[in-house]
């Protein structure tokens, strides 16, 4: 069995995992600091490179102990090489390079987005290429046609805010607390989704992309108008996001008739309304709907280890010269978005 | 100055791009939805960037480098930042040595951290209109094209 050590440190999370090519996760250790809530409605991102440095080596050691393995028994070392904050990415990548050099094990540089894109295959052995992936999180909102390892076609992206960011900022505007996604979802359950007329930016548009900045501004105006309850605004906001996601995903589906499944990944996949609407869309299109377990949707190292497994199997090994890349599009050939931000 | 629409905010940003030099800092202040990222998008378009300019709230720093832009730019959002000490972690000084910084939510900086910055503020008048005010330091006085 091939076992790969996966390392993730590209943003707020530091993590290490040992993943086998039989899809077993032998160990997974997260360094999350979720307790640090802030009055302005967010988690303090532990961005300090020194914080990653301090926790990463113990996390790797703990993962090896849990799996009952020694470093020399792993077949390769995979680390996120971007996109992300340069300090954090460099800590993870340089650690991987040092371990790779010291143990004479191959190094695999993984694009963080590739980790998300391939993670559904870790959870579901029957998921075959190509599939349509909606990656929807605090930092990203993209539709990707996943054709194989290293072969991704970006069909759509947000031109301004990510969907998860819209949830977080709506929670802040409405004073619903943190984390924003679950807070908005809980408030929405008590509200009327038809109560507040909110825009659906780019819905029905000929271009394939997403936009959420105008919706966020409309939420702010609705809140300031003081007519509706936060619950009604939350419910109406959530319905608008779902409408946008479904409209854009349906448009993308229409352009790729050979996909085997509709897959969702990213933290927003935790939202039950989003999930249910995507499942219904897949059903109407006669497709399977695949949603990995939530812990695999948010940032983690198991998905980096799994991407390492897939790249290793495809013979995609990197040299010690591979650079950390703060910005690293998964599909460099994706058509540029020329449109400006869309007003609500 | 009154900006009548998001398109005007973007145009204003694009006009400022023509004035930008390496070592410059522009800070953008204002409430959620006031037009900070829209202004930054215009500025990056003015520097020749053709791709999407997304909100840096989650990523904290989004770098733009030649040949995509005429001048290297770090688009920074301090909204989520917890500690001012973390600023050093963002690599802003390195970015400043090579290009320009556009910083949203500068209130989270230590006071007076970047006194040489062009400080642009946005106020929401209604759904469309924004009031832009700028306080320009000496290095910007001759360059800033609008009434202060």
Can you describe what's shown?
The complex is a heterodimer of chains A (344) and B (148). Chain A is α/β, with parallel strands linked by helices and 344 residues long. Chain A folds into 2 domains: 3-116 and 299-313, Nucleotidyltransferase, domain 5 (2-Layer Sandwich); 126-295, Nucleotidyltransferase, domain 5 (2-Layer Sandwich), CATH 3.30.420. Chain A is built from 10 helices and 12 strands. Chain A has helices at 49-67, 86-103, 112-123, 163-174, 180-189, 213-225, 230-255, 272-284, 294-297, 302-313; strands at 3-8, 15-20, 25-30, 37-38, 42-43, 76-82, 107-111, 131-136, 141-148, 151-157, 261-265, 288-290. Chain A has a 5-stranded mixed β-sheet, sandwiched between helices. Chain A has a 5-stranded mixed β-sheet with strand order 10-9-8-11-12, sandwiched between helices. In chain A, strand 11, helix 8 (272-284) and strand 12 (288-290) form a beta-alpha-beta unit. In chain A, helix 3 (112-123) packs across helix 10 (302-313), helix 4 runs antiparallel to helix 7 and helix 6 runs antiparallel to helix 7 (230-255). The longest helix of chain A has 26 residues, at 230-255. Residues 33-43 and 340-344 of chain A have low confidence and may be disordered. Chain B is α/β, with parallel strands linked by helices. In chain B, 23% of the residues lie in helices and 23% in strands. Chain B has 4 helices and 7 strands; from the N terminus they run E-H-E-H-E-E-H-E-E-E-H. Chain B has a 7-stranded mixed β-sheet, with helices on both faces. Chain B is globular, with a radius of gyration of 14 Å. The interface between A and B is large, with 45 and 38 residues.
């Amino acid at each position: 069995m091939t076992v790969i050590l996966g390392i993730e440190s590209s943003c707020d999370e530091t993590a290490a995992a040992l993943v086998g090519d039989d899809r077993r996760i032998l160990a997974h250790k997260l360094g999350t600091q979720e307790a640090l809530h802030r009055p302005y409605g967010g988690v303090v991102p532990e961005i300090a490179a020194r914080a990653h440095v301090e926790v990463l080596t113990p996390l790797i050691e703990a993962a090896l102990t849990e799996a009952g393995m020694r470093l020399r028994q792993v077949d390769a070392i995979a680390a996120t090489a971007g996109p992300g904050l340069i300090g954090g990415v460099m800590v993870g990548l340089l650690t991987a390079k040092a371990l790779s050099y010291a143990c004479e094990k191959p190094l695999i540089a993984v694009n963080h987005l590739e980790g998300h894109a391939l993670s559904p295959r870790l959870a579901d052995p029957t998921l075959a290429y190509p599939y349509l992936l909606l990656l929807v999180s605090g930092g990203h909102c993209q539709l990707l046609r996943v054709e194989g390892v290293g072969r991704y076609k970006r069909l759509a992206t947000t031109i301004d805010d990510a969907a998860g960011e819209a949830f977080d900022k709506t929670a802040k505007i409405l004073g619903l607390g943190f984390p924003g996604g679950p807070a908005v979802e809980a408030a929405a359950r008590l509200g009327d989704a038809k109560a507040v007329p909110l825009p659906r930016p780019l819905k029905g548009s000929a271009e394939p992309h997403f936009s959420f900045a105008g919706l966020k501004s409309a939420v702010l105006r609705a809140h300031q108008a003081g007519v509706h309850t936060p619950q009604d605004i939350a419910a109406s906001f959530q319905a608008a996001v779902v409408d946008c996601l479904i409209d854009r995903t349906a448009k993308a589906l229409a352009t790729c008739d050979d996909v085997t499944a509709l897959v969702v990944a990213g933290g927003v996949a935790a939202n039950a309304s989003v999930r249910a609407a995507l499942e219904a869309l897949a059903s109407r299109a006669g497709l399977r709907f695949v949603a990995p377990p939530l812990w695999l949707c948010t940032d983690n190292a198991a998905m980096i280890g799994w991407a390492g497994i897939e790249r290793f199997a495809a013979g995609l090994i990197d040299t010690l010269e591979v650079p950390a890349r703060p910005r690293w599009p998964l599909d460099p050939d994706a058509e540029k978005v020329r449109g400006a931000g869309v007003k609500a | 100055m009154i900006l009548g629409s998001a398109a005007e905010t973007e145009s204003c940003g694009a006009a400022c791009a023509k004035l930008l030099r390496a070592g410059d800092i522009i800070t953008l202040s204002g409430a959620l939805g006031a037009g900070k990222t829209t202004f930054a998008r215009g500025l990056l378009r003015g520097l020749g960037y053709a791709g999407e300019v997304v909100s840096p709230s989650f990523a904290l720093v989004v770098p733009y480098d030649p040949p995509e832009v005429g001048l290297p730019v770090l688009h920074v959002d301090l909204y989520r930042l917890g500690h001012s000490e973390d600023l050093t972690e963002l690599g802003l000084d390195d970015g400043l040595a090579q290009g320009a910084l556009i910083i949203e939510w500068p209130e989270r900086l230590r006071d007076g951290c970047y006194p040489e910055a062009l400080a642009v503020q946005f106020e929401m008048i209604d759904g469309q209109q924004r009031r832009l005010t700028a306080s320009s330091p000496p290095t910007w006085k001759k360059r800033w094209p609008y009434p202060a």
